[in-house]
Amino acid sequence: MDLATAIILTVVTASTPLLLAALGELVVERSGVLNLGVEGMMVMGAACGFAAAFTTGSPSVGILAAMAAGMAMAALFAGLVLGLVANQVACGLALTILGLGLSGLIGQGFVGQKLEPMAKIAIPLLSGIPVLGPVLFRQDPFVYTSFALVGFAAWFLSATRAGLILRAIGDNHASAHALGHDVLMVRFLAVLFGGACAGLAGGYLSLVYTPFWVTGMSAGRGWIALALVVFASWRPGRVLFGAYFFGAMSIGQLHLQALRGVLPDFLVLPGQFWSALPYAATIVVLVAISRARGRGGAAPAMLGTVFAPDR
Asked: CA 20 to 30 Å from 153, out of 19, 97, 165, 242?
């Protein structure tokens, strides 16, 4: 029982940054903007969050700094693609490169430093339930926030007027503009929200997951978050499943390798297979979504398409 609890807890820990970043990117893409700079925003959030928490001694300040760093990077991206109508793919890639380099510069003086992990919040009575208690009701604030964001994103996109406007802009920005909606402002706010979520995911890495700073500690998680949005067909509930699927694959292959010699060889596949499995599954889903898009699939019709209002 203790082993099962420990494994599930590690899966939750590995999945939370993916879930946070993917939820933010989902909202961005539903507005019709494709931001490939999630990796850069995440690593900037990790660097600035750790620097602020270490300097002030307050994890709360670190969380705010991580979100602010992600939003600042997102605002830069929005200025280029919304204000100057630059290519979204090129700007997203440039944002990732900028974030990786700038975060290394910011975190240079903090290499080797450590922080105390954030305290977990135990919900009375519920946290004492075997297995489920420690997993669901004795977690750090980031985990609770990720669950709350899933519900918020699903409610916002499906049950609010603002969410309907955002989806309409993502599906046909010209028609939404003709109806009087401010396409650029809605997309700008969506991009800022995505930046805040990506920065929060980066802050989780440096404040909770591994409470120290190392250059490039996002380790490709931003790219996985991008794939998760497609994997989930742009639906918040499926993002939750996909994030934990990827997290389980990354953690499960470590535990399976530890059982080599105990289980039959044909059951203990090479770790590279398990590491590659989520990406292979994503490729299959990408192909399926691409084919479905031509038949009215789930992808926003204006995704990656620039919008320049009449002047």
From this structure: 97
**pLDDT confidence of 134, banded at 50, 70, 90?**
confident
| 269: phi then psi, degrees, rounded to nearest 5 | -75, 160
Print burial letters for 212-239: b (CB count within 10 Å at least 16), e (below 16): ebbeebbeebbbbbbbbbbbbbbbbebb
pLDDT > 70: percent of the chain: 86
Residue 310 backbone class (left: φ over 0; alpha: ψ -120 to 50; beta: rest): beta
| pLDDT at residue 292, rounded to an integer | 53
Domains of the chain: 2-293 (1.10.3470)
What pTM was computed for the model? 0.90
Give the separation between CA 18 and CA 198, rounded to whole angstroms: 9
Q: Which of 249, 13, 4, 1 minimizes the C-alpha distance to 138?
A: 13
Confidence (pLDDT) at 237: 92
Task: Return contacts of 218-221, CB within 8 angstroms, 24+ apart.
Answer: 218/39, 218/42, 218/43, 218/46, 220/39, 221/17, 221/18, 221/21, 221/39, 221/42
Pairwise pLDDT comparison (133 vs 252), residue with the higher score: 133
Question: Residue 224: which region, alpha, beta or left (left: phi > 0; alpha: psi -120 to 50)?
Answer: alpha
